[in-house]
């Protein structure tokens, strides 16, 4: 599968982790499919990845210092 880099975070289907400030079960340089939770009332859905330990992990999208590249 060929991926195309994008700056549009909302359209992206994959995320590549470029840096993380601390160990959170995510591998730097790895590309993860972007997952979305069911919509929560008026707040919309939450974005997460399934980390290397099999957990739902929102950290790469919430923690300051995580650098990401997005792909379609």
Supply the key terms.
four-stranded antiparallel beta sheet, mainly beta, 1 helix, 72 residues
- How many separate structural domains? 1
How many separate helices? 1
- Secondary-structure element string: EEEEEEHE
Strand order of the largest sheet: 1-7-2-3
Classify the helix fraction into a percent range. Answer: under 10%
Please report which band the strand proportion falls in: under 5%, 5-15%, 15-25%, 25-35%, 35-45% or over 45%.
25-35%
Uncertain stretches of 5 or more adjacent residues: none
Mean pLDDT: 92
N- to C-terminal separation? 11 Å
Radius of gyration: 12 Å
Number of E-state strands: 7
Helix/strand class: mainly beta
Q: Which descriptor suits the 3D outline?
A: globular
Biggest pleated-sheet summary: 4 strands, antiparallel
Q: What do you see in this structure?
A:
This protein has 1 helix and 7 strands, in the order ββββββαβ. The chain has 72 residues and is mostly beta strands. The protein has one domain (5-71). The strands form 2 sheets. It has a 4-stranded antiparallel beta sheet, with no helix packed on it. Strands 4-5-6 form a 3-stranded antiparallel beta sheet. A hairpin with a 5-residue loop joins β5 (47-50) and β6. The longest helix is centred in the last third of the chain and has 4 residues, at 59-62. It is globular.
């Amino acid at each position: 599968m060929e991926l195309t880099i994008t700056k549009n975070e909302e359209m992206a289907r994959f995320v590549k982790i470029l840096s993380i400030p601390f160990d959170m079960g995510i591998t730097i340089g790895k590309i993860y499919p972007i997952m979305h939770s069911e919509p929560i009332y008026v707040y919309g859905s939450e974005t997460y990845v399934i980390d290397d330990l099999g957990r739902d992990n929102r950290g790469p999208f919430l923690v300051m210092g995580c650098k990401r590249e997005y792909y379609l």
